Amino acid sequence: MISWVKGKLVSSWQTNNKFYILINCQGLGYEIQTIESVFNELNSKNVSDKEIILWLKHIKKEDSDSLFGFFTKDQRDFFIQILNIKGIGSQIGIALLNKFTLNQIINAISNNDKKLISSVQGIGQKMTDRIILELKSKVFTQQIEKENLKTNNFLEENKELNSIFEDLELTLQSLNYPNKKIKNLFPKLINDIKDNKIATLEINSISFESLLKEAMNYLDKNSSNLGQ
């Protein structure tokens, strides 16, 4: 399976609201359908003599063999996810990514914003419901994973704070708070610390007691928002 391609832009063109580019990769020409934002950025810069990288999805059918390319792996992965929904083809996925950024789409799915999703040509109410139903849990899980990664990186750079969070996790577990809710809470606490949203949690003067108090208050008030 082709995952990504690196090569020089040869040409680009638009046909019936579809955007295409041709990339020369070691003497082979790859014709790739892309989204409007990628197409516009490549055409707004002088990149003809520079190598570019696109993340690819290869779709092979009986009567066609197509490549779809994106600047980021997240865009490509979302495109793959939406193709896995029954009744949704590649052009619906492309149309959605043409009209909105990936963050806008993810926020719409997370917030059940049916109006935004259904504003894309070709997506009706039933398809909108299906997209939100099938992708909402996946989007939430991916957001949590990214936040947890940021949290781990931040704690690795702050050894004293990392030690406090390790003690905090053990204490909350001993108080019978669910482990998943504890894990999901930590990114929020880290963000509040970094943004100075909590007066008692200034990064240079954090105590275990103050952090435990904030954690318990949040868990008791917002447990339904942190998963089971």
UniProtKB/TrEMBL annotation:
Protein name from the UniProt record: Holliday junction branch migration complex subunit RuvA
Q: Which NCBIfam families match?
A: ruvA (TIGR00084)
Describe the protein's quaternary organization and the partners it interacts with: Homotetramer. Forms an RuvA(8)-RuvB(12)-Holliday junction (HJ) complex. HJ DNA is sandwiched between 2 RuvA tetramers; dsDNA enters through RuvA and exits via RuvB. An RuvB hexamer assembles on each DNA strand where it exits the tetramer. Each RuvB hexamer is contacted by two RuvA subunits (via domain III) on 2 adjacent RuvB subunits; this complex drives branch migration. In the full resolvosome a probable DNA-RuvA(4)-RuvB(12)-RuvC(2) complex forms which resolves the HJ.
User: Cellular component GO terms, alphabetically?
Assistant: cytoplasm; Holliday junction resolvase complex
Single GO molecular function: four-way junction DNA binding
Chain ranges of the DNA helicase Holliday junction RuvA type domain? 1-69
The record's subcellular location field reads: Cytoplasm
User: Region labeled Domain III — which residues?
Assistant: 165-228
Where is it chiefly localized?
Answer: cytoplasm
Against HAMAP family, the record matches this protein to:
DNA_HJ_migration_RuvA (MF_00031)
Which Pfam family would be a valid example here?
A: HHH_5
Entry keyword set: ATP-binding, Cytoplasm, DNA damage, DNA recombination, DNA repair, DNA-binding, Helicase, Hydrolase, Nucleotide-binding
Q: What's the name of its gene?
A: ruvA
- Family that this chain belongs to: Belongs to the RuvA family.
